[in-house]
């Protein structure tokens, strides 16, 4: 038996381990979209904007009274979630580290609660092992490092579950009071705590039906919790009568999703390869069922308790998701304690007898190993990073944009807006499409009307591929404007579109030359490579006369002898001006054309290189000569790192 002193030392060590894992690289990644939304709306905005309708003055309103719905409609969560973040942010600040520390601390409390629950229903060894599995649980850590309420709620929920079991077992008034308080905190933190409450009610009705005194106190506690929460629900439903609630982005019920995504995610997080998660799902299901049967043979009441905590929320979310898109593992994180207790009780009991000791050790060892692999992926494998690098995009655009530009963010991700606003750049930005129902004609009208105000469009990221209007913006721009630059700061696509007509003040001072009697070069702009491994060159041709046969322009990257070619050429882009849109056989004398060349530098070694520009006859490859001599104009040197 573990001595009390020793068990407390071990528990403290486990709590410290869990806290260390939750703060490790806590601010290494920027806020994802939902986190940025939390900061912008839960923390910065007045708390009243989350809870009550706001009457606004709108000259375009069609009624005398224009109402802006509160945040509880657009981002539906119970009021305690907003309040916690609002108060926390006011005291600690708005940085990634500061804001994320709230769910870190709350989720760490869950380690102690997990120990208390395991100890209460099966003993210290189970409590310590369950606390350890919570401490290293990848899904708990993922959400503990995420500025939403999904990391706070599970800890509040497991605390309420422990206090419920304690009250049912000891049956003292103070324990019932503590349980009611914890239950209210949990349900006012996250709506779907209702599923856990329902599971506890199923358990109590099945196992305590003949214990009238205990059952009476349970009914009173439920009346207080549900009655108090009903007051909020009535207020919330009254607001919904005036506004349409945000419907969410998760999908509907799918048995395949339940087996291949829910079970692995709630056991080992979502930072294992998808194929592996799908592959282990049937094995995991069989293991959990066998654990349940094994425990039922030893303690039927505990088996009913754990079974209710798993089955009831799963059934409930499956039903609710038939009319609300809420079918995602994070919405039933409250069942994680039951899953962990199934594993810890079974492995602990198996290890108490010599013939099955190896099996219990194997079960817990494999569980810990998979958790650690998933954790390593979460921390160190960019494939599983949860967020786009919006900080890099904001910095890039702050450097590249002009006052008459418009930035169009096509993903409606609040993360971009949050970091872009921090740069203080005055260039306008907007989200487009507004949503997946945004009609093509309306999107195109916005783009067309914008040209009266803005000279250039920056397109950030890509529209959700599942939206029916996903290609509308790119298709319109590729028809009406010239794509002049493609970059990928932080791995996120950024594209610049310009009008076809070249404004006089756009033409740069730079290398110039005349190629025979055909064309003048008025300069070029060179954009060094970024993460997309491409050099982009804008060349400004002035047509002097059209030609009988088509010419191609070229930009060549030359340097020391290339072993692959036996000459100085390392990369090139040869094309008719504007990819044939300004063919030399039809271009208009006196007209200036912007011609875009892209040089792929992937696999080109570091060093100094020169960019050469010229024209040649497409049919025979004969180059035109420049007035300064030679058949190419040097645009300058560039150093590749």
UniProtKB/TrEMBL annotation:
One of its GO terms (cellular component) is plasma membrane. InterPro entries: LipidA_mod_glycosyltrf_83, RgtA/B/C-like. It comes from the Bacteria. GO terms for molecular function: pentosyltransferase activity. This is Glycosyltransferase family 39 protein. Keywords: Cell membrane, Glycosyltransferase, Membrane, Transferase, Transmembrane, Transmembrane helix. PANTHER family: MANNOSYLTRANSFERASE YKCB-RELATED, MEMBRANE PROTEIN. It is a multi-pass membrane protein. One of its GO terms (biological process) is lipopolysaccharide biosynthetic process. It is found in: Cell membrane. Residues 77-220 form the Glycosyltransferase RgtA/B/C/D-like domain. The keyword Membrane applies. It comes from Phototrophicus methaneseepsis. Pfam families: PMT_2. The chain crosses the membrane at residues 97-117, 126-144, 150-169, 176-206, 218-237, 249-270, 276-295, 302-325, 331-351, 358-375.
């Amino acid at each position: 038996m573990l001595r009390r002193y020793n068990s407390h030392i071990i528990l403290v060590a486990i709590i410290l381990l869990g806290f260390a894992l939750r703060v490790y690289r806590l601010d290494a990644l920027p806020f994802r979209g939902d986190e940025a939304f939390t900061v912008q709306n839960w923390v910065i905005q007045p708390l009243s904007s989350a809870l009550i309708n706001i009457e606004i003055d709108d000259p375009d309103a069609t009624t005398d009274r224009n109402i802006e719905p509160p945040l509880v409609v657009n981002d539906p969560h119970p009021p305690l979630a907003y309040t916690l973040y609002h108060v926390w942010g006011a005291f600690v600040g708005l940085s990634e580290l500061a804001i994320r520390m709230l769910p870190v601390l709350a989720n760490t409390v869950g380690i102690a609660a997990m120990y208390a629950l395991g100890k209460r229903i099966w003993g210290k060894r189970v409590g310590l092992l369950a606390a350890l599995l919570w401490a290293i649980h990848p899904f708990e850590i993922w959400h503990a490092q995420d500025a939403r309420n999904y990391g706070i709620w599970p800890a509040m929920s497991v605390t309420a579950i422990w206090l419920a079991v304690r009250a049912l077992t000891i049956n003292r008034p103070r324990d019932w009071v503590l349980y009611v308080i914890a239950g209210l905190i949990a349900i006012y933190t996250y709506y779907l705590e209702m599923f856990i409450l329902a599971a506890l009610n199923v358990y109590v009705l099945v196992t305590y039906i003949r214990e009238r005194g205990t059952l009476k106190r349970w009914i009173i506690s439920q009346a207080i919790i549900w009655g108090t929460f009903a007051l909020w629900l009535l207020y919330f439903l009254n607001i919904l009568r005036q506004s349409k609630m945000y419907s969410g982005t998760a999908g509907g019920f799918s048995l395949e999703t339940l087996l291949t995504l829910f079970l692995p995610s709630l056991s080992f997080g979502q930072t294992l390869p998808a194929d592996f998660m799908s592959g282990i799902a049937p094995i995991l299901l069989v293991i959990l069922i066998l654990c349940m049967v094994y425990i039922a043979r030893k303690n039927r009441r505990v088996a009913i308790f754990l079974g209710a905590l798993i089955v009831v929320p799963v059934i409930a979310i499956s039903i609710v998701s038939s009319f609300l898109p809420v079918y995602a593992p994070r919405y039933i994180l409250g069942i994680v304690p039951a899953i962990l207790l199934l594993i810890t009780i079974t492995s602990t009991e198996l290890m108490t007898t010599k013939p099955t000791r190896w099996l219990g050790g194997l079960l817990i060892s494999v569980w810990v190993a998979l958790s650690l692999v998933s954790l390593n992926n979460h921390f160190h494998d960019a494939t599983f990073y949860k967020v786009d690098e919006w900080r890099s995009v904001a910095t890039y655009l702050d450097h590249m944009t002009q006052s008459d530009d418009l930035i169009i963010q096509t993903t409606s991700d609040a993360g971009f807006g949050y970091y872009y606003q921090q740069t203080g750049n005055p260039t306008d930005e907007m989200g487009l499409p507004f949503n997946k129902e945004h009609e093509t004609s309306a999107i195109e009208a916005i783009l067309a009307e914008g040209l009266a105000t803005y000279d250039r469009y920056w397109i950030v990221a890509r529209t959700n591929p599942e939206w029916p209007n996903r290609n509308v913006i790119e298709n319109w721009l590729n028809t009406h404007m010239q794509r002049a630059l493609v970059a990928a700061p932080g791995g996120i696509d950024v594209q610049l579109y310009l009008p076809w007509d070249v404004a006089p003040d756009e033409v740069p001072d730079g290398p110039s030359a005349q190629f025979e009697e055909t064309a003048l070069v008025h300069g070029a702009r060179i954009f060094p490579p970024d993460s997309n491994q491409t050099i982009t060159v804008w060349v400004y041709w002035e047509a002097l006369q059209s030609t009988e046969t088509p010419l191609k322009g070229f930009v060549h990257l030359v340097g020391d002898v290339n072993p692959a070619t036996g000459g100085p050429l390392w990369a090139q882009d040869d094309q008719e001006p504007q990819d044939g849109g300004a063919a030399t056989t039809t271009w208009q004398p006196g007209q200036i054309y912007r011609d875009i060349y892209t040089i792929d530098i992937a696999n080109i070694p570091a060093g100094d290189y020169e960019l050469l520009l010229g024209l040649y006859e497409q049919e025979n490859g004969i180059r035109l000569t420049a007035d300064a001599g030679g058949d190419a104009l040097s645009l300058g040197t560039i150093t590749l790192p």
